[in-house]
Amino acid sequence: MTRRYKAAFSLLLFVLPALVLYLIFLIIPMLQGSYYSFTDWNGLNKTYDFVGIRNFVEALRDDRNFRTAIWFTAKYVFFAVVFQNVVALLLAMLIESRKRAKGLFRTIFFMPNMLSVIISTFMWVFVFSKVLPALSEHAAFKFLDLSWLGDPSVSFWSILLVSLWGGVGTLMLIYMSAIQGIPQHLKEAAIIDGATPFHMLRYITLPLIAHALTICIFLTLNSSFKVYDLIYALTGGGPGRGTQPITMNIFEEAFQGNNRYGYASAKAIILFLIIFVITMIQVTVMKKREVEA
Amino acid sequence: MSRRLYSALAWLVLALLAVYFLFPIYMAIVNSFKTEGEVYSSVLGLPATFRFDNYMEAFKKANMLHSGLNTIIVTVTGIVGIVVCSSLAGYKLSRTRGRLSNWIFMLFVASMLIPFQTIMVTLTKMARNLGLQGSPFGLGVVCAGLGVSMAIFLYHGFVKGIPRELDESASMDGCGEWKGFFLIIFPLLVPITFTIIVLNLLWLWNDFLLPVLLLNDYRKYTLVLTINMFFGKYSRDWALILASLILSSIPIVVIFAFFQRWVIQGITDGAVKG
Hints:
The complex is a heterodimer. By secondary structure, chain A is an all-alpha fold.
């Protein structure tokens, strides 16, 4: 009995420094945030009232900006997840099938991951506002003459172009290591049986890297729902609120003039629940398929 | 014939994608050497002469030395905190069986889905109450709190590969548990520690939203915040802006070049063990 207590005590001592930091800066703010989401606190006053679920009802029923932001984020997440994973997988397969220059290509496609999103997106602002207009003056590049950052229906694709640029590096590395793990004799057997590249992909590669697909789709879902820096630096959510994601809507509600802490917290909880439910469904469904394969 | 066609196609696609990836960086570097007038008259061409004036000016005007120092304080504080706390916790949680240990581990892992926006308001308030707002050191401490769960997860997986006999031999030789950890276990954790350092370095060095909330005096700004302010201030002077973007990216690229092996190792290991 005393031995068990001693073991538990020693466990707690080792865990204590991490646990204290973690409780103070993550768990307690999370619980406080959940609490404030049921109040009308403005972040400054000492007093506030308990308003039940009124914040949640207002956000989902009456707040047009928030609904637009949810719709924008949903569209963005869908395209970002699909594009990033397709391109990362394509790159991983192409690079792995090369005999030469593997390291060079890996470095080129991973490079954006080193840079700060803010800093590299400012480079893209330069490209969109100065370089592409100059290019489009040449007849061959006439099609580049677009309002890349000024028209929400165009800048949606500009945002995706930059997110693809910054997002594929990590995914590509994960896919590459999964592809390296496919037993060589399976590939050889398939080639001898006359499999086309498409058959190889469908019946050999994809089923055998299913675990990497689960992880990469989880990572991209998670990061795309939380997108902020990129859009902040590229369009600032504008023009108007034309490209405003949920995260920016929350930030605006909490800090920029509105100062509705309680209401912003309710929106933040909604975002958390959306991410939680969707990623849980994704992981459960995809894990099941892994076992079958 | 189809194999050669396939191979040619593969090179073509790789080359096109490489152009897409290098294009903005190439454009930024080339134009950072031009004069302001040159940027407007010929964006696409090469500069008439390679002059470093923009770099000198950006270095001075953006106060790079100072904000670089602030960034180093944030990064070092955060990383030391994360490595010390998480190695202890990850090791012990991995070695201890039982409900308490599982429960604590799950508590750490569960947080990875929490969006920063869900806690930002109350976290800022917490940091202010603890006197951590407004200083790079305080920001580093807060970051350590946010970063421990990921690092514990990685340490937890890595420790499984270290034989238990080593712990036992240490305790038989009369080492206390803590002394044994620092003398015998920690040196064995060096590879995963490198990975954790580099991953957190990329995060801390480049982080934006948390520093915005916690550092409200421009003298305390990190590099990214300074560049953000600089961008707003000189948004018409692209040559100067681009020089500042390149200049502030150099340190992290150099560090990364040295540690590339561990990053690639870490990203793939972390993903596969998850």
